[in-house]
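Supplementary Text 2. Reproducibility record for the structural model of the 441-residue chain.

All settings were left at their defaults, and a single model was retained for analysis rather than an ensemble. We include the record here because the model underlies the residue-level annotations in Supplementary Table 4.
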Amino acid sequence: KEKIFEAVHLYAQNKPACLHTRLGAGSQHINATQTVRAINIFHALLGDIDIPGGNLISSDLGGFRTPEVITQILRPPAEVDKKRIGAKIFPFLGGPKEVARYVMPQAHTPSAIEAMLQGKIRAFYVPGSNIVLMEGDSRRTWKALNNLDFLVVADFFLTPTAELADLVLPAAHWLEMEIPMRAYQVMGPRKYNHILASRKVIEPRGECWDDRKMVIELAKRMGIQVPWQSVEEFNDWQLEGVGANFKEIQKRPHQMISFPIKYKKYEDTGFRTPSGKIEIYSSFLEKMGYDPLPPFVEPPQSPVTTPDLFLAFPLIMVTHRNIIYMHSEFRQLPSFRKVEPSPFIEINPETAGKEGIQDGEVMWVERPGFQERIRGKARYVPELDPRVISVHVGWWFPEKPGPEHGVFEANINSIISSGPPYDPVNGNHQARALLCRVGKG
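Retained model, structure tokens:
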């Protein structure tokens, strides 16, 4: 508690300041939505919203169609949105009109996997995702994908997910694509929003296609009317409001168009809330039936929530990524494996000593509700709280026989449930702060 107050005071006394939230706070536990709300309220109370050095509100970039805008232009009618899997339980996934600009409509992933198991989903298209590793309860996901009539995966390599596919589409690398993108320059005296027209370094190899080309061609064959017939037309369509097409921007200095950053935009437009103000007490969430103030929610398994279970599983498990790898990518690269050859589990030496685990030795992790264990090499971290271990995510072994490639040996998602309870707003399941126990071998 004292450390929390110390961190708050340190942040509040250093202005201007900004705080960046990503997946840890925003999607890996059952109170993610309200946690991010609490952080944003903190920014507002300190006056750090849309000021130099603070948390900026994105600009419209002269009418540039961002992915968020494109999603809203192409979204189906409301009656179709409401049929998304999970949208009845988690209405935000269907993108209510009040927050439509900021919500990309989507299905509830655990519910979609359950629908595959029940035969309600018969075909699945997976562009650039190794979903077997990256979703909770990997064995359940594996079984669901095997239950499909038709699975298509677009990727660079034969991952465990791609190994299950009926059809694997070779995807182009981003260095083989031309993509309009936004960027920000906030250092130094000149502060701008930029639109960049990236130039591909080489042509796609062999039969590799840009992901956008795959989707456009699929839409044509499905009889779906879209505003473009090629990736080139799509790029120019994104830039229609800017006053220059993609090739024209590529000819400009640094291949970009720049717009001066405007701060405190809310003074002209207000905020996209019913009151036009930042709402600490959210009238919209209240209207939707959610808590209008961010509450604290104890994890579903913890020393407080489940004290009896804690006696049998006395450690708290979190997860981390390593700077060498990105999610489940790059395990097939010898240069990367030379730096970080195998999965590891961070553990305090005091905790390891109680179990006879030496630094660098193989250890196992076990979780309630799972008969299986995952394994990795112990890595002593004296700074880590003795009550906590941290497991490296995303591990599979391209060198091992397919189709599994050892996907269940060290992949922490193999022993993380994707079931309820869920975040009541966005449907996240608990993926961190989970009870576990460890041992040697």
